[in-house]
Write a structure and sequence with these properties.
Number of strands: 6
CATH class: Alpha Beta
Oligomer: single chain
Strand order of the largest sheet: 1-6-5-4
Strand content: 25-35%
CATH superfamily: Chloramphenicol acetyltransferase-like domain
CATH architecture: 2-Layer Sandwich
Shape: globular
Helix content: 25-40%
Order of helices and strands: EHEEEHEEH
């Protein structure tokens, strides 16, 4: 979970993370299994980080809590066939005069954490 001062810092963070993705094979990896006898890891030359702005109503409660609930890994799944196995969602939290973000990633790419 992250907090930002506005949408521009969110975009700068995403751009920096995209640079990291471009440098590391594991972050450009996905899994292919359809039509194959066994699943295989595929490393793509290019993989673009998913960046999603979510509109959340502060009247429904804490924005960060709502964002976390919406992208709870018990209910939200990343597409394993699409690299990178990461996704950044963010929302404006006007109550606290900030923007909040959540970085989702599959354990296959960042299991060391």
């Amino acid at each position: 979970l992250f907090t930002f001062t506005g949408p521009e810092p969110v975009n700068l963070f995403a751009k920096a993370l995209q640079s990291v993705i471009e440098r590391h094979d594991i972050l450009r990896s996905s899994i292919a299994w359809e039509g194959l006898e066994d699943p295989v890891q595929v490393v793509w030359r290019q993989a673009t980080l998913g960046l999603e702005e979510v509109v959340i109503d502060p009247a429904d409660g804490d924005v960060l809590t709502q964002l976390h609930e919406q992208f709870d890994p018990r209910h939200y799944r990343l597409d394993l066939s699409r690299a990178p196995l990461m996704h950044l969602a963010y929302a404006q939290d006007s109550t606290h005069q900030r923007w909040v973000g959540i970085l989702l990633f599959h354990h296959m790419v960042l299991d060391h954490t």
